[in-house]
Amino acid sequence: MTPRVLVAGVGNVFLGDDGFGVEVARRLSTKDLPADVRVADYGIRGMHLAHDLASGGYGLTILVDATMRGDPPGTVYVVELDPPDGPPQAEALDAHGMQPDVVLNLVALLGGDPGRVLLVGCEPAVLEQRMGLSPAVEAAVDTAARVVTDLVKESSDARRKQVPPCALAFPEK
Question: Which one, of 152, 101, 146, 105, lies nearest residue 122 by Cα?
Answer without folding.
Answer: 146
